[in-house]
Fold these 4 entries.
Entry 1:
Amino acid sequence: MDQIVIEIVYTTPLKAGLLIKDMQHYIALALKGESTLQERYDIFLEQEKVLKHKIEVLQNAMEVTQKKLAYYKTAIESGSEKDLPPAFNLSRSGSGSAVKNP
């Protein structure tokens, strides 16, 4: 097999963040040739869904972290947590659950 093709076959699943079992399956399919194009496409279609979910989770975590940073920065600047305005309530709109400030 041509070196470039080998490199693509083996590095593409790794760069896409596939699990080892999915990488092994992808490589086995790739080695079988063009008859497995649809199956390989489906693997990456599913991986796209997985990655979108992970991005959403990370974005939510970033939002909470940024709110906490603003909370603590304001508390440090004012010298106390006691007098912070209610705007520092970390509840997410629509979630119904509030995160208490420590």
Note: The CA atoms of residues 48 and 84 lie 41 Å apart.
Entry 2:
Amino acid sequence: MVPRGDFAAMSEALGVNLRDHAATACANLVDGRNFLEQALYVDEISPDSAHLLHQAATRAWRPAFARVMRLAEKRFARDAVKESEARRQARVRFGVYFFVEDSSEEKSE
């Protein structure tokens, strides 16, 4: 979740998430990598449908986050014991976003 009420923390979260998302897209496009980067897009739906999709996305995210977080914690603990500091240089960001807007604003521009 985005930290609320602390503008500096919110700005930092925005910056690191944007950086890693852009780095993923660039690596896939330029370097021929195959990082996970998927999105669903649908338009011409009602605000009620958008709200239901937001709820569904939130429900889908929770178990995915929990599963990946459990594995991350296990691997972090394992690597702290079994791997040298020199080998523990990789970092991972796993996330999801959901955005809704009135597309009539886009069409009028």
Note: The mean pLDDT is 92.
Entry 3:
Amino acid sequence: MLARRDALLSAALSAGALARPRRARAAPAPTFAPTRDGVRFRDARVGDGPEVFAHDAVVILFTARVLPSDDGALDRRRAGDTFDPFVVGGAGASASKGFKLEIGSATNDIPEGWARAFEGDGDAMPRMRIGGKRIVRIPPSLAYGERGHHCRDGVRGACEVNPGESVEIDFEILRYT
């Protein structure tokens, strides 16, 4: 049998252990689902409106960023920098107002990966809906490839997106135009 003193000591130690602050667990990093062509995506919110199709004109909000490469080749000061994906008449990061975009329009300054992000790939990545918000990570082959994007005087390294860099685009489809 435990003596009264031992029981009180045991209770006090147990209470102290319970009262000790616990370390907060770090939230797990968001996971991105891969597609067959190398695009990775994560739906932050699935829209509740109709699905969007090629040649639909929609209003979107977006932010486009340069991603660090897996081998660390990207200059670290550029990792996460936003850029304007449109050469002429662009809107840059469009947090303040919607940007009108025709899905699947080939203007040579919109990465091929954008259209796939909206229209889905018929497999892992579903077609988006109005009201949806998706983050896509586009590999160089479906972004700006070896030509880069918005290079000043054609100088490699003087581009908004250098040749061979992956990009991340965070966008939301607000409505049809």
Note: Helices lie at 4-19, 112-119.
Entry 4:
Amino acid sequence: MAGTDKSIDSLRKAYQNGNLSLYLGAGVSVGSGLPTWDKLVLAMYFSALSKHAQRPWHLYPSYLFATAEWHLERSNEPLEITARKLRRYYKDDDDFMMHLWETLYAGFLDGFSSGNTAIDPAAICTGNPTLAGITQLCRGSISGKQGVRTVITYNYDSLLEIALADHPFQAICKSTPLGRGKLPIYHVHGYVPLNVTELTEQDIVFTEDQYHQSAKDSYSWANLVQIQSLSSSTGLMIGLSISDRNMRRLLDAVSQMPVETNNFALLKEPTWKKPDQAELQRINEKALSYFYRFEVSGIKTGWKTKFNTKDDEWHEQITAIIDEVHRVDLDQQSFILEQLGVHPIWFKEYDEIPEILASIRT
């Protein structure tokens, strides 16, 4: 598409001028088997329950995450509430952080508790093409001359740091001077590296309270780093859905600044699964229940009889709404993103991401 080609050209030019910033979300790490924040919360909760049960049992990572995914599709409880429930199972902050580390890297651990320090950076990239593409962009950087200027990640993990291996970088999770000639990797929600010596809960944004505290502190190092980067460099968001409220607030603030911003986001085109006949019938039954409520409230209407027949009128009522929402969805999402100063680059399949990243570099 012409719009996509123009966006790639802008990103390529920024890369050549050393003015490209990357913003990384959970979609980058899931390719290596790490959980998203919602699955991490549930997996920690399930694991804590298993350890404190009358008959404790060991949960294997694959079943832990698969069960968390199943539960997410069916539970209506806000995950912030589940995160609060977690606190009662830990004797102190150190205990909590160790369990978070164990759950986050469950698939990377030798046995049940020790980190695998011999992870091959090349192997991580082979199994995660998106991470490989990001790594290649970073490795092609020459400080102040070309390539990636800054990486801002909303992930706790150190997969990018492992993949970069001997390339000069500096992982930053608090206000710290940047070393000369190093690529900064800012962990604005906290940093929980695989090969860790010490962790404190103050290092991460995990609970609802911590999130609100981070969002309302306009002059925190994390917010200042994001605003400065969003307003002064060309940005590319990868693995982000722009659903983070604080992220949208920052984008909105930057879009109102008297500066020209140039930020892009790689996003999967929304897909819709049309409702089958059984689902349509359930929607119709729900609609009829509303007619009954209208009647018992004293509202007399002949609509109920009309749509309680076997003709296609009720079917058309439902499908017309669903089809129109589907038709305008991509355009509406693009409009909202443009209002925030973000130009979407839509793709149909995830395996297109490495190709897009390679086209920026070459």
Note: Residues 313-339 form the longest helix (27 residues).
